[in-house]
Design a protein that fits this description.
6-stranded mixed β-sheet; about 25% strand; 12 helices; single chain; 17 strands; FAD/NAD(P)-binding domain
């Protein structure tokens, strides 16, 4: 093969989409049905928002999403503190059918797909799968957070946050709003969410980092508290029923300093290319997969070195991802105490929270980081 795409999630699908039809390409995935089960909240900022989030992207046409991928489009984010204080932020999201989107993009690429096939690693430069070896000139490692490709190269493990989500029917909230909740009792070290997909259906979930939780607490218990007991979320879920549930892990770490190892290009969650303070991985994986394919196309045309991929993804993603990681680290300093977190974040404005959602660090946060030891003693 010219190119093997190891893992056909978002990053893999967008790599297949961009790779030239003239190349001999195979996309490999363990699933029988691409994109299923859905393992995320299924939200993508609109093109208008992406121009702010990723100001150095060369082409924003990736985010001209066809309407048939959407189940809903929201206009605001409501960010709810443990004491109930709510920030209302203008921020637009596509709520997509992620499985349909991945499947449609991968299949319409025209490249070969090898499904129900596990990526198992590398041996003597060849890609090892559950159906045998594949000898590819270039490999896109887009096999997710628990990357077998990264393990084969002995790359350092990323920090993960477990997450669990229900798809629920009968939610009673504003379809124009994505709801984000913080609080140690319902989402220690992370946040909870209600994302309306329309017609009373929504994605309802939490992140859960055990080191910030009470001893003996579990992600299942915390999610059930969020759904049934927590006053600021359960008010929307009184009549809701669980249709399905899924568990996953989300990288919450800095991306690799280099994503190119000889003929292997890492893209998306496998390289922790994720907006770590909110766990947002779809838009960054779209960009990374597309950028990897662009470099590969030029490589086969004889005009570029594969290491150019490092320059490209860093130009597009690195600054915002580093900002997101710094915000997460700041967040972590207060995740063990809901009262303290509420007091500190009550000093923020809607504008401040809007900047944080867009991977920008408000001056108040910068000042807080300088005086953090004093603030911790006071609060």
């Amino acid at each position: 093969m010219d190119v093997a795409v190891a893992g056909v999630g978002i990053a893999g699908a967008f790599a297949l989409r961009r790779l030239k039809k003239s190349l001999n390409v195979v996309g490999i995935d363990k699933r029988k049905k691409l994109g299923y089960p859905v393992e995320c909240g299924e939200i993508i900022p609109t093109k208008k928002e992406m121009k702010i989030l990723l100001p150095d992207l060369d082409d924003y046409s990736l985010f001209d999403l066809p309407r048939h991928y959407e189940s809903n489009r929201t206009k605001e984010v409501h960010f709810i503190l443990p004491n109930g204080k709510t920030f209302e932020i203008d921020f637009e999201f596509h709520v997509v059918n992620r499985d349909e989107m991945i499947r449609s993009i991968a299949e319409s690429s025209g490249h070969e797909l090898m499904l129900e096939t596990r990526v198992e690693g590398l041996k003597d430069g060849k890609l090892i799968t559950s159906r045998g070896e594949i000898d590819a000139k270039v490999i896109v490692a887009s096999d997710g957070p628990n990357s077998k490709m990264a393990r084969s190269l002995n790359l350092p493990k990323h920090e993960f946050s477990p997450a669990k989500q229900y798809v629920m029917d009968g939610i009673e909230c504003d379809d124009d709003v994505v709801y984000m909740y913080i609080g140690r009792k319902i989402s220690p070290g992370a946040y909870g969410w209600i994302i309306p997909k329309g017609n009373g259906i929504g994605n309802v979930g939490i992140g859960f980092r055990p080191e910030y939780a009470d001893k003996g607490d579990t992600i299942v218990r915390a999610l059930d508290r969020f759904v049934r007991e927590y006053p600021y979320s359960s008010q929307f879920l009184k009549k809701a029923k669980v249709i399905s549930s899924i568990g996953a892990v989300v990288p919450v770490d800095l991306p690799y300093e280099t994503a190119v190892y000889s003929n292997i290009l890492f893209a998306g969650d496998s390289a922790s290319m994720i907006i770590s303070h909110v766990g947002g991985g779809i838009p960054t994986s779209m960009v990374a997969g597309d950028a990897a394919a662009k470099v590969i196309n030029d490589y086969f045309d004889g005009g570029i070195d594969l290491r150019e991929y490092d320059k490209l993804w860093k130009k597009y993603l690195y600054g915002p991802l580093v900002n997101a990681y710094h915000l997460k680290r700041m967040w972590d300093r207060f995740s063990d105490d809901d009262d303290r977190m509420s007091k500190i974040l009550s000093l923020a404005s809607n504008s401040d929270m809007g900047k944080i959602l867009r991977c920008r660090i408000p001056w108040k946060i910068k000042a807080l980081s300088v005086f953090l030891p004093i603030v911790e003693r006071i609060l």
